[in-house]
């Protein structure tokens, strides 16, 4: 897996997903595996664009679920080819929707996969519809746990604060298991 800073990676084609991915939880894993599946079917690199720190942690001073190193490790275990890590700070927040789309064009995404509530760019003004104006975009339904509740980083943070480590761990999922199913042997 190769790690890049924004604007540095150039590809003739790719599949892409963009997100904070704090925790790389089971919901994120479903999105990542769908993007990876499409990359394999299309014969193009699998690219993830993520942020450090995650925007919610930056704005709300919330608890970080995984360090950048842990996140990158989990992404590598999921078979990501390239990761772009945007340093989320005051300067990054000024990136407009059109600037962000122009940057994505350097990756020439054949497909972009996102969740239904994806927003991007300055003041979160960019939407799925904005992406669809330039790229083919697939939208994956949010993943729910066995109890019918949405799996999210916010929920996992809340569970950790409440001391419900067992459920939080369940929602984070075990990437070693996914890797095993795909025939990879990762010692963690």
From TrEMBL:
Its EC number is 2.7.7.2. SUPFAM superfamilies: Nucleotidylyl transferase. Gene3D superfamilies: HUPs. The keyword Nucleotide-binding applies. Pathway: Cofactor biosynthesis; FAD biosynthesis; FAD from FMN: step 1/1. It catalyses: FMN + ATP + H(+) = FAD + diphosphate. Residues 14-155 form the FAD synthetase domain. Keywords: ATP-binding, FAD, Flavoprotein, FMN, Nucleotide-binding, Nucleotidyltransferase, Transferase. It is an enzyme of class 2 (transferase). InterPro entries: FAD_synthase, Riboflavin_kinase, Rossmann-like_a/b/a_fold. The keyword rRNA-binding does not apply. PANTHER family: RIBOFLAVIN KINASE, RIBOFLAVIN KINASE/FMN ADENYLYLTRANSFERASE. Belongs to the RibF family. This is FAD synthase. The lineage of its organism: Bacteria, Bacillati, Bacillota, Bacilli, Bacillales.
């Amino acid at each position: 897996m190769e790690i890049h800073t924004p604007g540095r990676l150039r590809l003739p084609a790719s599949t892409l997903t963009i997100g904070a991915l704090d925790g790389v939880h089971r919901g994120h894993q479903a999105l990542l595996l769908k993007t990876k599946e499409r990359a394999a079917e299309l014969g193009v690199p699998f690219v993830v664009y993520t942020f450090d720190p995650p925007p919610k942690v930056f704005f709300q001073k919330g608890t970080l679920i995984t360090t950048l190193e842990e996140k990158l490790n989990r992404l590598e275990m999921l078979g990501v080819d390239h990761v772009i890590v945007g340093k989320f700070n005051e300067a990054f927040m000024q990136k407009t929707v059109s600037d962000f789309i122009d940057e994505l064009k350097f990756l020439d995404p054949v497909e972009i996969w996102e969740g239904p509530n994806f927003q991007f760019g300055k003041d979160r003004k960019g939407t799925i519809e904005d992406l669809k104006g330039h790229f083919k975009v697939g939208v994956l339904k949010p993943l729910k746990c066995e109890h019918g509740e949405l799996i999210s980083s916010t929920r996992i943070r809340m569970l950790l604060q409440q001391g419900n480590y067992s459920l939080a761990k369940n929602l984070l999922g075990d990437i070693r298991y996914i890797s095993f199913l795909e025939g990879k042997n990762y010692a963690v």
